[in-house]
Design a protein that fits this description.
- Helix 1 packs antiparallel against helix 11, helix 7 runs parallel beside helix 11 and helix 8 crosses helix 11.
- The chain is globular.
- The chain has 11 helices and 2 strands; from the N terminus they run H-H-H-H-H-H-H-H-H-H-E-E-H.
- The chain has one domain.
- The chain is mostly helical and 310 residues long.
- It has a two-stranded antiparallel ribbon.
- The two termini are 14 Å apart.
Length: 310
Amino acid sequence: MDDIVVLVLALAWDALLGELPLAIHPVAWMGKAASALERRAPAHGRALQLVYGAALVLAVVALFTAPAWALVHYLKPQNTLAYLLLAVPLATSTFAARELIAAAHRVRDALGRRDLPLARAGMTSLVSRATAGYDEPRLVGATIESVAENFNDSFVAPLFYFVLLGLPGALAYRALNTLDALIGYHGPYEYLGKVAARADDLLNFIPARLATLLLVAVCPVARGRAGAAWRVVWRDHGRTESPNAGWTMAAMAGALGTRLEKEGQYELGDPGAALEPALITRATLIVLWGMGAAALLAMAALGVRYGYFA
C-alpha cells in the first residue's frame, strides 16, 4: 500500500504544483554531478572515453539510486510517515507532466500573439536543437514532436519503472535519461556518451511502445484519429535515428492527421492539418488523456502486484 500512496501523492503533486524548486530538485543535482564528472573526462582516446563514460553512468545512477534503496529497505519498515515525507517528493521529481504541458502551451500562446522570438525562446525547455531560424510551422511541429516523445520520457517510462522496481527504479531511470540528454549524442560526446545513450535506448524500449499504445487507445476520446495513428506508427516508426522516439511521434502525427519532420532526418505522417498553434492544443489534449490512462494502468498493476484484486 505504501507504494500506491507514494505514487498517488507524487502524481497529484506534479499535476497540482509542478516541479520541485530547482535548488532541491534531484534531476538538477543529477545534471550537476554529471557535469562535474564530464569536465574530468579524457579529451582523447575512444576506448578511454568509452570506459570513462561507462564509469560516469554507474557513478551517477548509484549516487541517486542507493539513497532511495536505503529509504525503502531501512526507513520504511521503521517509520512509515518519515518514509512518505521523503519518498513522495523524490518520486515527484521523476515526473514532469505539468511542466511538459505548460512549456508546450507557452510556445502556443507566444505563437498566438505572433511573437516568434518568444516562441523560439520557449523551445529551449522542450528541444535541444537550434531553433533560431524556425518559422511558425516548424516551431509548431517541433513542439508537437517534443510533447509526443516526452510523454514517454517524462511520464510513462518513470511510471513503468516505479511499478516494476519502486522508487529506486524510477530514480535510476531518471538518472540515465538525464545522462542521455547531457552526453548521449553525436559530436564531442560520441564515445563518452555511448553507454548512456545505449542504456537509455534499452530502458525505453518497452515504455515507448506502451506509450504508443496508450496514445492510440485514447484517440477516440481525445479528438484523435486512432486508425491513422496506428497506420502511421507501423509505417514510419523506424524513420528516426532513435529506436524509440519514432513510435510516439509517429502515433501523434497520425492522430493529428499531419506531417512532422526534422529537416534532413525524418518525415512522419502525411500532409494534412496545417502546423498552426491550435494543433499544439490538440496534441496536449491527447497526451493528457494518455497520462490519465497510464496512471490508472499503473495503479491497477500495483493493485495486482500486491494482491488487492485477488
